[in-house]
Design a protein that fits this description.
The chain starts with 10 loop residues before the first helix and ends with a helix. The chain is elongated and about 55 Å long. The chain is an all-alpha fold. The protein contains three helices and no strands.
């Protein structure tokens, strides 16, 4: 069975699906979620190693306060 990979998948995922002969949308969705989870975990680990904390702006934070906070984080 020949399958044309027209889905928007990373090359390694497309190669895996082609090798398995299963290009179902469900499989692709599961693999995308797994890859996203792995990327998010890696990103969190790298941020933690660099000493960066993920913070959200306070709703009442002024633009100047936001820029000052960004400058502090960038200066680490």
């Amino acid at each position: 069975m020949t399958v044309e990979m027209t889905l928007s998948l990373p090359a390694d995922v497309a190669a895996y699906l082609t090798a398995k002969g299963n290009a179902s949308a469900f499989t692709a969705r599961v693999l995308r979620r797994q890859m996203l989870t792995e990327d998010l975990e890696k990103s969190a680990r790298v941020r933690a190693e660099a000493g960066l904390a993920t913070t959200a702006a306070e709703p009442a934070e002024s633009e100047d306060a936001t820029l000052e906070r960004w400058a502090r984080v960038a200066g680490r």
